[in-house]
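> agent: user asked for a holo structure of the chain below bound to calcium ion. Plan: (1) validate sequence alphabet, (2) canonicalize SMILES, (3) run complex prediction with ligand conditioning, (4) return tokens. Step 1... ok. Step 2... ok. Step 3 dispatched.
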Amino acid sequence: MRNAPRIIAATAASFALALGGATAAYAGHDSNPSGKVASYSYDLNAVQPADVPESRASGTTRVKALPNGKLQVTVEAWGLSPNLPHAMHLHGVPGEATDQACPGPAAAGADGVVTVLDGAPFYGGILTSLTSTGDVSPASALALDRFAMSDADGYLYYQRTFTDVPGYTDAGTVQVVVHGIDFDRNGMYAFNPADPFSSRSSSLGAGIPLEATVPVLCGGIAN
Ligand SMILES: [Ca+2]
Ligand SMILES: [Ca+2]
Ligand SMILES: [Cu+2]
């Protein structure tokens, strides 16, 4: 499995290209007339149809705008594919506040899986990569060596305070999306021709396993 992140990282640029367009920087953020800390907590809900294997996760997230202009993002999730990094992003539409939402199972379409691109009309492009270290731009969308890992029980905890959040306007217009499902439970994101789900490619590129990019959890204030 150690090889997988390297291979996938090489494709991060195309991932960002496919979903990005969210690179324009702008200074707007949640304005709170009281000057108090604005904190938003919401549930993360399973994105996939119930018959997609290993997709029954749940979670919570908190987006807290600190008085110093920093933004603290917390993600806690249960039931994820264990012992694997999970790409996570703030998704949304940069610019004017736009209510986006999370895709439901109906967004899966004929192939029975909600892919990244199936979800994009709902949650928009990537504003911020919720990496644990280093770059947080859309270019790090699939930098799996820098995302939080689930433990052996599929539990994941993530918290990071951002000094500069590209594309962020306010917590009411972003979706937190967590990616990655080990459909065949072999402990890695990889192609497995023998498995009906793990054999598939990501909607972002034929060389990327669907397992690595498929959305598993989504949540936001707008929904
Ligand atoms: Ca689909
Ligand atoms: Ca797998
Ligand atoms: Cu994402």
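> agent: step 4 complete. Summary for user: The chain has one domain: 3-220. The chain is about 10% helix and 25% strand.
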